[in-house]
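Quarterly update from the structural biology core.
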Amino acid sequence: MVAVHGVSCDIEAGARIALTGPSGSGKTTLLHLLAGLDVPTTGSVDWPAIGGRTDLRPGAVAVVFQAPSLIPSLNVIENVALPLLLQGVDRTAARVAAMDALTRLSLIDLMHSLPEELSGGQSQRVAAARVMAGRPRLILADEPTGQLDRVNGLLVVEALIRAADRSNAALVVNTHDPDVAAHLDQIWSMSSGRLLQREPARR
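Predicted structure, tokenized:
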């Protein structure tokens, strides 16, 4: 079974893209290919402004998943700082960057909380803070609002847009929600593994 085929696309710095389509249309697979998490069986995926596939994470490309992605044994600030530490950033500098990101998203009061003490919306906003602290070149979000109510969902999307704005990163959000898609600049539609249509978002 072919999950994605015949797809050709370019993602430029600063792009704000909503990836839409029914379940099983290939959206998640395309995001995983863009993140370098999956390897295409044919064709190629290149990151000319970033480097090779081994250069992508945790620095240049950040991925926000629909399912909880925080490490349960680490508190909020440790979770946010972790990608920076993995890149070799000094521990003090990583903590400062994490505190700054949490402050920007009004999460600083939760810095010592464990993931199990957070609501779903808070957990996803912490995941957005982790992205913001790292200043990636490309942010990929796979249904980041799928398990949230409308208010918390839009807060997460706005947080991801702010994270992308801060480092002029490209942002691609896989979503079924037209309200989420309307917050981005472009809508790419997929069906049966094919990228069918690209159009400006209607606001």
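DSSP finds seven helices and six strands in the chain.
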